[in-house]
Amino acid sequence: MPRCAGTKPDGSPCERIVSASHTYCFAHDPATAAQRSRNASKAARSKPSRELAAVKERLRGLAEDVLAGEVEQEAAAVASRILGVYLRAVEQERKVREQEEILGRIEALERRAEQGGRIGWR
Ligand SMILES: [Zn+2]
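That is the input. Now the predicted structure with zinc ion docked in place:
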């Protein structure tokens, strides 16, 4: 079985097995590089990641304010509990989106298989 001709970030050769018609695995194929960076930037821009970053920032600020004596500990405890619940809601939303995306991809593969196409797992 041929192996991917790409190299891993540490410089060692990629060990993924590729089909005979491919030189690179999905992660290293120059032809899919544009799509990969689109996917990555889409994920970074997504609402849950922005919300997570904002909540993390808020929690850090809260911790600093408590340590500096600018916020009462009781108020900070309540605020961090609320932010914790909010974080779980954002995480739940992220999971649902992830599942929807995976389901969409499975459905696309199934449609392709029904049309007699070969499913290529790369
Ligand atoms: Zn590879």
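DSSP finds three helices and no strands in the chain.
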